[in-house]
Write a structure and sequence with these properties.
The protein is of the alpha+beta class. It has a domain at 124-414: Beta Barrel (Porin), CATH 2.40.160. The chain contains 8 helices and 22 strands. The strands form 3 sheets. A 6-stranded antiparallel β-barrel has the order 9-10-13-14-12-11. A two-stranded parallel sheet has the order 4-5. A two-stranded antiparallel ribbon has the order 21-22. A hairpin with a 6-residue loop joins strand 21 and strand 22. The longest helix has 31 residues, at 429-459. The chain is globular and about 70 Å long. Keywords: Lipid transport, Lipid-binding, Membrane, Phosphoprotein, Transport. It is a peripheral membrane protein.
Length: 507
């Protein structure tokens, strides 16, 4: 079944066709049984240098290692879609709810942003000079953007953080990993109809999102490197904490843009010491020149258990969009295996709609070609669709509308205070483009100053300290020689004291 699919990005003759309409992919009952090729790898083979682009997930990696083919057969299809009794797909998940120990009124947040104005732009006049280049190094007008920074866009990974709340309650490690897997898929749901480019954060730019009162989590992000662009993020919720170092490579290939994420994401459940690590899959934006823009996510994702969960792992496959398959489009399928490489849970669904999970009830077949029978599937995640008129304002979800809402007492480096982004949200795109050029030139001037100071120091034979982020510090990653950015733990104390003396002036 895997071999029957062909990535549209590899088929030049099909680039001009449109993908199916929004909401068109659903998990069909006949898709509940499937074949999956699992790479036979040893633990920690996923560890590569975080700047190694070859370490990213892609559909091309499957041929690089030995694989085992497994067959998953679902039973009791009449009762296949069983919603978990502790529901994680409530449409009310963004509605403020007071915890029992709270007495103050939760802040009322906005539900939309101003409509997107109609600014015509000659697309080809700009992108014809971008072919084959890294898009992060090319100045682009805000006409391509959405009024959010990449730091804010990364925060959208937690739109369905209630799945991690559920995972924290799981007693069985493999079941917990099944819910973590559903959470990793949920972060792609908005990409099906969001084609605007986030603002590239300035070096030292930060973004905080404190939703402890209503959603039970808060996170802090910081742009820790400019070349290569890199963001560090730390989030803590109900019984879990999650952190990532995000960077990527992006290339424009004429008809499509391919985005390959680098760096790893980690989630830990302190009560048990269970920890899981993964890297995001490849995203391709199609029809850059002709036709309607559409996005595909594709590749293999390996989620590895560490700490108390060492040895447990999940292999997840994002099938590339294909015009020649009878399979459900935007399909995701995978298995959770215990430390003995036995499949214990099955993952099935689509990255733009919902994910279902099912326990394995029996195993048959040979060791080389095992057959796993599952019990009833239950829904681990269902997408909350954006408001019906969201096409007027960048196809934002409710959470996305709230990310750039002005808020008092944040750091002076916070994305909400970035003037070009605010002007764009207000519909003043010409002024926004002027302000964007000013901010970028100021950033280049700061970089030139640092380079000149470094040259002077070298000529005088004295060391020159490299740039250091404010809220994250470099530490050697456990089990590897990689240096990664780790949260220092001081941001929220500084906010309480309103002590922003360490913050640079970047706006």
């Amino acid at each position: 079944m895997d071999d029957a699919t062909t990535s549209a990005s590899d088929d030049e003759d099909n680039e001009f066709y449109d993908a199916q309409e929004e909401g068109g992919s659903v998990t069909l009952q006949e898709d509940s049984s499937f074949i999956l090729n699992i790479p036979v790898t040893t633990h920690h083979n996923h560890r590569r240098n975080s700047n190694d682009a070859t370490g990213s997930s892609s559909e091309g990696e499957e041929g690089n290692s030995e694989t085992q083919q497994v067959l998953v057969v679902a039973e009791n299809l009449d009762n296949m879609d069983v919603t978990d009794r502790i529901s994680v797909n409530s449409s009310q998940a963004l509605t403020p709810t007071l915890l029992s120990n709270q007495s103050k009124v939760v802040r009322k947040r906005r539900t939309r942003v101003p409509d997107k104005p109609n600014y015509p732009l000659n697309l080809w006049s700009i992108i014809k000079n971008c072919i084959g280049k890294d898009l992060s190094k090319i100045p682009m007008p805000v006409n391509f953007n959405e009024p959010l920074s990449m730091l804010q866009r990364l925060t959208e990974d937690f739109e369905y953080a209630e799945i991690l709340d559920k995972a924290a309650q799981a007693k069985d490690t493999c079941e917990q990993l099944a819910y973590v897997t559903a959470f990793t898929v949920s972060s792609y749901s908005t990409t099906s109809n969001r084609t605007g480019k986030p603002f590239n954060p300035l070096l030292g730019e930060t973004y905080e999102c404190d939703r402890t009162e209503d959603l039970g989590w808060r996170c802090i992000n910081e742009q820790v490197s400019h070349h290569p662009p890199m963001a560090a993020q730390y989030c803590e919720g109900r019984g879990w904490r999650c952190w990532q170092e995000f960077t990527m490579t992006s290339k424009f290939r004429g008809k499509y843009i391919q985005i390959v994420p680098l760096g790893y994401t980690h989630v830990e459940f302190p009560a048990t010491g269970n920890k899981y690590t993964w890297r995001k899959v490849t995203t391709t934006v199609h029809n850059i020149i002709v036709g309607r823009l559409w996005v595909d996510n594709h590749g293999d994702m390996e989620i590895f258990g560490e700490g108390s969960a060492r040895g447990v792992k999940c292999h997840l496959k994002y099938l590339p969009y294909s015009y020649f398959t009878r399979d459900t489009q935007r399909r995701v399928k995978g298995v959770v295996m215990d430390s003995g490489n036995q499949v214990k849970w099955v993952i099935n669904g689509t990255w733009d709609s919902k994910i279902e999970i099912a326990p394995v009830t029996s195993t048959s077949g040979s060791m080389e070609n095992p057959v796993y029978k599952t019990g009833n599937y239950k829904t681990a995640w269902t997408r909350r669709m954006p408001p019906p008129d969201s096409d007027k304002y960048y196809n934002f979800t409710l959470l996305a509308c709230q990310l750039n809402e002005p808020e008092p007492n944040v750091a002076p480096t916070d994305s909400r205070l970035r003037p070009d982004q605010r002007l764009m949200e207000d519909g003043k795109w010409n002024e926004s483009n002027q302000e964007k050029l000013r901010l970028e030139e100021c950033q280049r001037a700061r970089r030139r100053q640092r380079e000149a100071e470094a040259e002077t120091a070298a000529a005088e034979g004295r060391p020159y300290p490299p740039y250091e982020p404010i809220w994250f510090g470099k530490e050697k990653e456990e089990g590897t020689d990689n240096l990664v950015h780790v949260y220092k733990g001081s941001y929220w104390d500084a906010k309480t004291k309103q002590d922003w003396s360490k913050c640079p002036t970047i706006f």
